[in-house]
Amino acid sequence: MIKDKSIFIKNIYYMLSYAFVILNQGSYEDIAAEEFENIHNLFAAILSKGIGRQLKQGLYRQYLSCKEDIAVVRGKIDMSGTIQNRLARKRVLTCEYDELSENNLLNQILKTTVMLLLRHARVDQRYKNDLKKEMLFFSNVETIDPSTIRWTAIRFQRNNNTYRMLISLCQLILEGMLLTTDSGEYKLASFVDEQRMNRLYEKFILEYYTKECPQIMVRASQIPWVLDDGFGTMLPIMQSDIMLTQGNKVLIIDAKYYTHTTQAKYDVHTLHSGNLYQIFTYVKNKDAEFGDEPHTVSGMLLYAATDEAIQPDNVYQMSGNQISTKTLDLNCEFSHIATQLNAIVDEHFGK
């Protein structure tokens, strides 16, 4: 898929910039202007800038429960521990107390990710030097086993919202680039895996249209099942990737990032059947919402282009609705990517 690695890596930065608006702020401008030969350097540069910004605001601290044997009362006395100390003739109290500490999960994720990047041979020394300096401020923060992180349980609020982009980037790195060696140690893979790139690809397209196409409503909406008797127990949720709406016109886009855009059998290339069934189901159920009201509902499978000879680019008329397949070339200058995305909107909603 990668014809010019530096262009592709730069486009990953642009995709991240739309997914995380903070990257469009002034302190990240030099990253946007830089050429990166590998994705490790890109991630190291973004993390270095982001952690530097966070250090100026101060590391997030939260109250953590502590238990300690001490000579004076602090917090609440733990009676069972204190009795054990007395029986052992130790003149100390076991106390439980809350302490405001930077050794919390968010900072532990940052330090764990940075330490992996510092050990990676493909990260240039200048990025390592910046990260090493910043890690001096994390001396009281522990590293953790990446496999134990429950990403869905992490909650952001007013005091730690500035961590949102950094933690999302760490998740992309740790989940998408982490491999376990035979000895049980962790190392970083050479590239982000297909599944994580698919999530970024979806988020990028959604945020691009949200920012650049104000004339249309852009959402990642759920589509209700149209049921004859209203009984929908155990039916899966229909969650669209991108839904574009203008008046009575709707375009539902399913964004797909695959190593192979088609499936081949006996040299015959066909679309991934599950993808086609899914978009057709979305379109027909959305179409039924309008009833007799004049409307147009279309669907599109938007694949990231690969270097394969056969690329999906077809338009089908199915039961009164248009279902199309297109590819988005990410191996070109970003202005050309924008042109491709804008053309989709112009084609379906007019200029």
TrEMBL record:
It is an enzyme of class 3 (hydrolase). Keywords: Endonuclease, Hydrolase, Nuclease. Transmembrane segments: none annotated. InterPro entries: McrC, McrC_bac. GO terms for molecular function: endonuclease activity; hydrolase activity. The keyword Transmembrane helix does not apply. Its EC number is 3.1.21.-. PANTHER family: PROTEIN MCRC (PTHR38733), TYPE IV METHYL-DIRECTED RESTRICTION ENZYME ECOKMCRBC (PTHR38733:SF1). This is 5-methylcytosine-specific restriction endonuclease system specificity protein McrC. The gene is mcrC.
